[in-house]
Amino acid sequence: MPDRKTIEKARKDKREGKSPSTQAGEFVREEIEKIRHGEHGAHSTQQAIAIGLSEARRAGVDLPPPKKGKVKESTRKSAEYAYEVGQGERTPKRRPRVSKAVTEVLKHEPTSTASPEALSRQAKRAASRRTAEERSAAAKKAAETRAHRS
C-alpha cells in the first residue's frame, strides 16, 4: 500500500503538468526506499521498478500498460489489471493468502538490488537502449517542466 505522502507528491506532479512516468517515479522511489530500509527485498532492480509502477497504476496514475510484444504477456496482463483498478473500471479481488505468500517471498530476496551501484547499472542499461535523439528530447522536456528554483 503506497504512503499517503507519495500519492500527494504524485498528484502535485500531475498538477504541475508532468508526465505520468514522472508521477509514477514517486512510487518507484518509495519502493526503492522500502527495499533499502529492509522492509522487503527484490530479485532484481527491474522487479523493484515494476512493483513501483504497479502501485502507481493502482493508485490512479494514468500510465497505460505496455503494448503487445514489448513485454511478456503475463506482465502486460498484470499491468492492464492494475491500470483498470486505478481507473475505477474494476474492483480488485482481495486475496490475503496470495498477498501474504508474495510478501514472504520478497522478504527472502536481497536488498542489494536497490543499492546506488545497482540503480546506476540499470539506468545506464536503460539509456543504452534509447537513441541519442530520444535521450536529447527527454532532457529538453525535463528542462521545460523542471520547477524553477529562485
Question: What is the secondary structure topology, with strand pairs?
Answer:
Layout: H1 4-15, H2 20-36, H3 45-58, H4 73-86, H5 96-107, H6 116-128, H7 132-145
Helix pairs in contact: 1-2, 2-3, 3-4
Description:
It is a single chain. By secondary structure, the protein is mostly helical. The protein has one domain. 64% of the residues lie in helices and 0% in strands. It has 7 helices and no strands. It has helices spanning 4-15, 20-36, 45-58, 73-86, 96-107, 116-128, 132-145. Helix 2 crosses helix 3. The N and C termini lie far apart (35 Å). 21% of the residues are buried. The model has no long low-confidence stretch (mean pLDDT 92).
Which key features would you list for this structure?
150 residues; mainly alpha; globular
| Cα distance spanning the termini | 35 Å
Largest sheet: none
- The percentage of residues in β strands lies in under 5%
Q: Label the overall shape.
A: globular
What does the average pLDDT come to? 92
Record field, number of beta strands: 0
Question: What's the SSE pattern?
Answer: HHHHHHH
Our count of domains comes out at 1
Low-confidence stretches: none
Helix-residue proportion: 55-70%
Number of helices: 7
Radius of gyration: 16 Å
Structural class, by secondary structure, is mainly alpha
